[in-house]
Specification:
Number of helices: 20
Order of helices and strands: HHHHEHHHHHHHHEHEHHEEEHHHHH
Helix content: 40-55%
Number of strands: 6
Oligomer: single chain
Distance between the termini: 48 Å
Shape: globular
């Protein structure tokens, strides 16, 4: 009976959602009430997994979130045999054309349309809100179990909010479990400040690191469940996003990142490390000590990502039968900027095929990114180039954020130390630059190290380099940026039954 109650509860949550804002009358508390009162720790675990699964749906199962929003947009990418129109709209920042071409009827369907539809992200938020309210009602739960699940829910709620802010800017914000009121959009600065306060309270309440440990002893949880390292990395990203959009307090945010980075990088009880370059392929299978947070994929259990959501499916070809080119490639001039022809860098041989420096679109010598290559077969004879997990945050990412903040507040020597940890791992020459040159070197190292991991466009936006043709092939002017040209369109379903909702008018 309890199992059936739980299933009904999840269905109710899904069916009552409208673009993510679940509206429930105050006295209509859903069949989930019985689930919490009559439930047990096993059911709570299943409920928690449903929150993670909705995040998977939002990013990897219903959309190509990381690829389209983070890697393709305003990027120097060309096509061999891929969808030329899709690539053209994204790289030229023509989101109105993209919406018109791929989001037919503005229904938020398909791999592109789902990015404009915040439904699954808000199901993460709502699921977390419900768990935080109701878990104390579950019998036979230890205090420690309650703390663990509450901590995970807080992380996932704020992760979902951060991802939505990076897409849409201002968004509705709420922490009420059974929200019954239509909501307007809240300033993204306020949303992110609320997120930081929420996460800081979590960190402060867990000095012994038992609510969220640095790492889990169980392999099944390693990397794919919230940890202290994941929380600190999320807070670092949020602070650096606020540097751009709340610039009057930029020094405070940089100082916050330095403090967070010091704990994560220097005081993590040896829980995280940079994996040797000879074993870097294991990073993208998942669960290594470099992982801070990742999204699980299990082909054996048919828990698989959408084909278009996997970066390497677009940029690799050698694992496929009867394919002689990838769909897309990075342009030669850009790759030479990242990896100079005569430079030393193990990432060139480890992450690319031998044709990295060939002229663009020569079919006899196609470029290929092998960084994520972990091919497997599923659903009969369908091949994916990477059957591993999707990295959200990893240790190298956090080290470079730490270096960025150190450089910004003038601690250039320590910034160089952190930057060169990444370069030393790759066998690249150490960087000893200062001032603006050092800040630019850190930016380019993030582009180099995190290529294909969904950070490129967001780093352009938050650093302001989105305006500079020296860093962005399709820059956005400051005037258009301020009008909202950096955002994504919002699915028109968000207007249904909500008189307070507005869209991103730049794209309407």
């Amino acid at each position: 009976m309890k199992k059936n109650i739980f299933i009904i509860s999840l269905l109710a949550v899904s069916l009552l959602s409208s673009c993510g804002l679940i509206k429930v009358d105050a006295d209509d508390k859903l069949p989930g009430d019985e689930f919490w009162i009559e439930g047990n720790a096993g059911n709570v675990e299943t409920y928690m997994l449903s929150i993670y699964n909705n995040f998977r749906k939002a990013t990897m199962m219903k959309s190509a979130f990381f690829v389209y929003s983070g890697d393709f947009r305003c990027a120097p990418i060309g096509y061999y045999s891929g969808d030329r129109d899709l690539l053209g709209y994204l790289t030229s920042n023509d989101m109105a054309g993209l919406k018109s071409r791929y989001d037919s009827g503005n229904n938020g369907e398909g791999s592109v349309g789902q990015i404009t539809n915040w439904n699954y992200f808000y199901q993460v938020v709502q699921g977390a809100n419900i768990l935080l309210k109701e878990i104390d009602e579950v019998p036979d739960m230890t205090d420690q179990q309650v703390r663990n699940y509450k901590a995970e829910a807080i992380f996932m709620r704020n992760l979902a909010y951060f991802f939505m802010v990076r897409l849409f800017g201002d968004i509705p914000y709420y922490t009420v479990a059974y929200n019954s009121e239509p909501l307007s959009r809240t300033s993204m600065v306020t949303v992110l400040q609320n997120c930081l306060a929420d996460l800081q309270a979590l960190i402060d309440s867990d000095p012994d690191k038992t609510a969220l440990p640095w790492r889990y002893s169980l392999n099944s949880k390693s990397g794919v469940r919230a940890t202290r390292g994941a929380v600190l990395a999320l807070m670092m990203h949020i602070n650096l996003w606020l540097v751009r959009f709340d610039s009057k307090q930029s020094n405070t945010y940089y100082q916050n990142v330095v403090s967070l980075g010091d704990e994560l990088v220097n005081r993590n009880d040896n829980s995280y490390e940079l994996v040797d370059m000879s074993r870097s392929s294991f990073i993208f299978k998942g669960g290594t000590k470099e992982s801070l947070f990742e999204i699980a994929q299990n082909i054996n259990s048919n828990e698989i990502f959408d084909q278009t959501a996997i970066f390497s499916n677009h940029f690799a070809y050698s694992c496929y039968i009867n394919r002689t080119t990838p769909s897309y490639y990075y342009k030669r001039e850009f790759l030479i900027k990242l990896f100079p022809v005569n430079g030393e860098d193990k990432r060139v041989s480890s992450w690319f095929n031998d044709n990295i420096y060939m002229s663009d679109k020569i079919d006899l010598y196609p470029k290929e990114i092998t960084k994520f290559m972990n091919p497997d077969t599923y659903r009969g004879d369908n091949i994916t180039s990477n059957s591993g997990n999707q990295i959200v945050f990893r240790f190298a990412d956090a080290i470079l954020l730490y270096a960025e903040a150190l450089a910004a507040i003038g601690e250039e020597g320590e910034a160089q130390v952190q930057l060169n940890k990444i370069r030393d791992r790759a066998g690249a020459t150490s960087v000893m630059s200062t001032g603006t040159d050092l800040q630019n070197d850190i930016f380019w190292e993030r582009v180099r190290e995190l290529i294909g991991e969904g950070h490129y466009y967001y780093d352009l936006v938050r650093t302001g380099k989105i305006h500079d043709i020296n860093f962005c092939e399709t820059p956005i002017s400051r005037s258009k940026f301020n009008e909202g040209a950096w955002t994504w369109p919002i699915c028109r379903k968000a207007l249904v039954n909500n008189p307070y909702m507005t869209l991103n008018n730049y794209w309407e």
